[in-house]
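Lab notebook, bench 4. The sequencing result for the construct came back, and we need a structural model before the next group meeting so we can plan mutations. Quick request posted to the team channel:

Model the 3D structure of this chain.
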Amino acid sequence: MSNLTNLNKVKVSSILAISLSVLCACSAEVVQDNQQKSTVKPNIVIFYVDDLGWGDLSSYGATQVNTPNVDALAANGIRFTDAHSSSATCTPSRYSLLTGEHAFRKNVRILKGDAAMVISPEQDTLPKMLKNNGYQTAVVGKWHLGLGDGKKDIDWNNDVLPGPLEIGFDYSFLLPATGDRVPTVYLENHQVLNLSKDDPLYVNYQEKIGNRPTGYENRELLRQNADSQHDKSIINGISRIGWMQGGKSAEWVDEDFPLVLTERANNFISNNQTKPFFLFFSFHDIHVPRVPNEKFKGATKMGVRGDAIVQMDWITGEVVNHLKALDLLDNTLVIFTSDNGAVLTDGYDDDALKLIGDHKANGVYNGGKYSAFEGGTRVPLILYYPKQVKAGVSDSLTSQIDIYASISQLLNIELGNDEAIDSQKKLKGFFNANEEARDVLIEETPFTLAIRENNWKYIRPANRVPKFIKTKKNINSGTSTGVQLYNLDIDPSEQSNIAHKHPDIVARLEQKMVNIENQSNRVNDL
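Done. Here's the predicted structure in C-alpha cell form:
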C-alpha cells in the first residue's frame, strides 16, 4: 500500500512539474508577445477635411446633418473642443501640418493651380521623418501645395516634379490644386492619369487658351452659376479658375471623387498592411464646387453642402471599415480634422446660404474661413487610437502644428534643431482628455495674425480691412485697423472688444507674438 502511495506521489509530482514548465513557457511567450506588441509601430491615418466647420458634425452638435462614422471615432476616442488649424485658409494650414512650421515664415498663401511647390525637397517634413523610420507613406486627395520648382512652367505632358514624392511620400494620387482650379485631372505620382499624347494638356492663368467654353461666355452651360474668379474653362458643367486646353481623356468627373479617392486610399492600405504606414487622406469635400455623388444627393435638407458632409462621412467610414477588415484598426492612430473653418458661399451659387436653415456651420464662433475670429481656425479634431487612448472630451487649447512633433515623441524619434521649429511635443494633451496641451497658440489669416493665451484672444491691427470677405464670402473677417482683445471665457462669439480696458494684456500678447515670430529654431517642449 505504501509503495502504491509513493508511486502516486511521484506521478503527481511529475505532472505538477510538467504543468509548471508548460505554464512558465506560456507565460514567457505571453510576455514576449506583449513586448513585441508594445514595440510595433502604429499605422497613422490623418483625415484632413476641407472647409469643415466646428459645428458641421453631429458629434459637435449639428442636428440638420448626421455623421455616424465620424461620430463613432469621437465616441471611442478624444473629441477636442478648442482645437485649431494653423491658418484660416487651406494652403498655409497644409504647409504647417506637414512641416511643423508656421506658414507666415515663408509667406505661404493660397496658391494658383500652376504655382510652384511651397515645400522644398530639402525641407524636413512629417512624411519624410516617417519614411526614414520605416514607414510607407502616401497622400491621396487634394494637394494645393504647388508642383514643380518654379524655374520653368509645369509641363503636364511629362513628369511633373518636384511633388509629393520629393518631400517624403512613397505614393501620391492628387487633385493637383483644388476642385475649382484647372487642371481638372488626377496626378498619380509624377504622371497625369489617362492623358493621351494625341491631346496634350496646357494650363494658363493669364489668358484664354484652347476652345473650351467658359463660364463668362457660355453661362447657359453651367450647372452652378459662378463669380468672376471661377468663371473660366467649363469642365463637367462647372466653370473653374483658369483656362485649360486639351487633356480631354484625363478629365475627372467631380461626382466620382468619393469612389476614386477611397479606392486609392484603401488600395494603399491593402498593399502595405504588413508594414507600418502613414496615409494623409486629404479630402476635397466640403470645398467648392460641391458636386456630391448621386448616392448622397438629397441626404440632407441643406442642399449640396449638407450632402457633401454626408459624403465625407461615408468616405471616412469606408477607410476605417477597411482598416478594421484587415485587422489593422486597433494599431492605427487616426486623426480627423479640418484645414480651416466653414464657408458657405465661396465662388459658386449652390444655394448653401439659402438652404442653411438652423444649422450653425461654425457653432457659436464668429467668422469662418479667411477670418481672424475663432471660426477661422477652431475646427473639429478627433483622435482615435484604441491601444493607448481612452475616450473622452478635451477642452484643452490644441494646435494641429503639434501633430508633427507629437508623432516623433510617440515613436521616440529625435528632431533636429531646425526641424519643425513651431511644433511642440504634446503627446500627453493629445492622448489624455484630462491633460492640457498648449496655453498659447498663433491663429494665422491672410491679412493679420491673432494669438490665444488660454481664454484671451488678441488680434493684431491690419494695414487694411478686406471687404470682399464680407461682401462675397458672407464671413466676418475679424480684421480691423485697430487693436482687438476678447475674453472667450465670457464672450466666445467675440462680440465685445475690450482692448481699451486691458492695455497691459494687449501689450503682453503682442510681445508674445513678436517672440514667436522671431523664433529661429525648435521651441522648448513643455
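The longest strand covers residues 43-49.
Will bring this to the meeting.
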